[in-house]
Structure formats: structure tokens, C-alpha cells
Amino acid sequence: MDQTQERRREIDAALEDIRTIEQREGITRPALAKIRQRLIRLAARTDLFTTQDFPPPEPGGARKSCLYRLAEDADHRYALYANASLGGYSTPAHNHTTWAVIVGVTGEELNRFYERTADNGVREKGQHLVRQGSGVSFMPEDLHSIHIDAPLLNFHMYGLGLEQLHRREFYKPEEHAWGIFPPHSDIREARPVRA
């Protein structure tokens, strides 16, 4: 079996387990913890997920990170992406409007967690450094930001594909206001062609 076939087999097996977890347990924090653990198992296969297979954007360009679609069902559910970054990248505090799990393959991604304040702002309430063997998970309304200083490769998985998420909120601290992220559109297709 070549590497591409083995990667597809491992992704398919992980997605089957994740569908089963969600269908049996629903969207709960304990269920998301199980999904996170299953993705950590997949991310341990660093031989199948390398920066040679999933390179970051070219240095000097406008983008510091890019997403590769590894899996997504026909109804746009269970969307798994490889996020490849050069570093020097961060996001504002935001939600996803669907469940989400991030786990490390190589490198480190700092996740900061927030809660909304009474004056419609945000307050940091914790953080976690995502790296190989660890991850974070989010309910649809949870708020976080990501901060990447050096090159990395990690997995981002969502209950619904990013192009379908039309109401993701993000906080604009300079305006003390909330905005809406446009649906993500720069995703590189990396699903294998099936015979």
C-alpha cells in the first residue's frame, strides 16, 4: 500500500469513528473530548502528514497559513482540514457556529479562550498550547483565538465545512464591536480521487 492509500485509509477510519461518536452521544463536551482523542491518534501518524505533502504558503506572500481539505461528507458535515502555517499568524477572538476540534501534528499553536463580558467585549479565561499529542475542542458558541509563531502543521475539524459557516462572529477590540467572518474560500483540495 502506498502512502496516499494508507493516508486515505487512516483518515477514513478516523472519520468513521468520529461519526459514530457524534451519532451516539450528540454534541457534548465529553463527546468532543472523545473526538479530540481520536484525532490525536490520527495526528500521531506524522509519517502520513508532512509539510512536504501539505506545504505552507510561499514565504513573502500575503498569506501565512493555508488549509487543505482532507475529508468532508457530501452534506458538508465532518470536515477535516490540515492547516499548514509559516508562523507569524494569529486570529481575533471568534466562534465557529459548529463544533470544532484542533490537534497538533508538528509545531505549536497557542489557543486563547474567551468569555463575553457584560459590555459586549471579551475577557480571556485561559489558554492551551496545541502540539503533537494534544488538542482543544469547542462547542459552537465557544470563543477562541489562535497564535502561531513558527511553522506548523495541525488538524482542524468542524461539524460543518468552513464554506458553509456564514455567521461566525469575531471580536474587533479597536472598535469594541463584533463582526462576521466571511465564509472561508481559500481551501486547497487534498481529498484523494476515488476510483
Work out the oligomeric state of the chains in this entry: single chain
| Series of H and E elements | HHEEEEEEEEEEEE
The low-confidence runs, each spanning 5 or more residues with pLDDT under 50, are none
CATH class: Mainly Beta
Strand order of the largest sheet: 7-4-9-2-1-12
What's the name of the CATH homologous superfamily?
Jelly Rolls
Number of helices: 2
Structural class: alpha+beta
Bin the helical content.
10-25%
Beta-strand content bin: 35-45%
Instruction: Using the CA coordinates, give the radius of gyration.
Output: 16 Å
Notes on the structure:
This protein has 195 residues and is of the alpha+beta class. It has a single domain (3-189), classed as Jelly Rolls (Sandwich), CATH 2.60.120.10. The protein contains two helices and twelve strands; from the N terminus they run H-H-E-E-E-E-E-E-E-E-E-E-E-E. The strands form three sheets. It has a six-stranded mixed β-sheet with strand order 7-4-9-2-1-12, covered by helices on one side. Helix 1 runs antiparallel to helix 2. The model has no long low-confidence stretch (mean pLDDT 95).
